[in-house]
Amino acid sequence: MNESTYEGRIAPLKSITVEWYEGFQFIQYPFTLYLWSVFDKFLVYLFEEESSDTYAGYTKVKVRIEWENGDYLEDRIDVGPGDFHPPWTSGNYLKGPGVGSIPRGVMYGSSFEYDLDERGRVTETTRDNVQWTDSARD
User: Fold this and answer.
1) pLDDT tens per residue across span 42-88
2) Rounded to whole angstroms, how far apart are CA atoms 112 and 122?
3) Using CA atoms, how far apart are residues 68 and 3, in angstroms rounded to an integer?
4) Short-list 4, 45, 2, 9, CA closest to 24
5) SS in 3 state form for 79-138?
6) Phi, psi at residue 37, to the nearest 5°?
């Protein structure tokens, strides 16, 4: 399928690749997942492992996400009490606040584009054209 196939629709998730992560190594990286819910379980497990010891920091996770329309996001998620933690979902965390807010930056790279008003607030973003959960629409 090409990008025009998704015109006017939300493009489905293609893959989520965990390129590396810190903390308790229970899965060899890199590895690829195909559902947001499975990725969320991985992050929750890291959070619970982090919370079970006396370490008060966070666990870094480098992830590359690709969608069927060719969009991609390569970013880092910091898992810990001061950042990503349950009950948040990874997709909504990575999508960011969207229209009306400042653009959400990424650590490594992204294909997303923004239109901004004179105050630097998002008026339109291509982040709205891709799926951030396993449901058909957010």
Assistant:
1) 999 999 887 776 566 789 999 999 999 999 999 999 998 888 888 88
2) 12
3) 8
4) 45
5) ECCCCECCCCCHHHHHHCCCCCCCCCCCCCEECCCEEECCCCCEEEEHHHHECCCCCCCC
6) -65, -35
Domain boundaries defined on the chain: 3-129
What is the rounded average pLDDT for all residues in the chain? 88
- Give the position of tokens 């819910």: 37
Q: What is the pTM of this model?
A: 0.88
Assigned token pair, 117? 């008003």
Find the mean pLDDT for residues 104-112: 90
Instruction: Provide the 10 A C-beta neighbour count for residue 15.
Output: 14
- Residue 47, φ and ψ in degrees, nearest 5: -60, -45
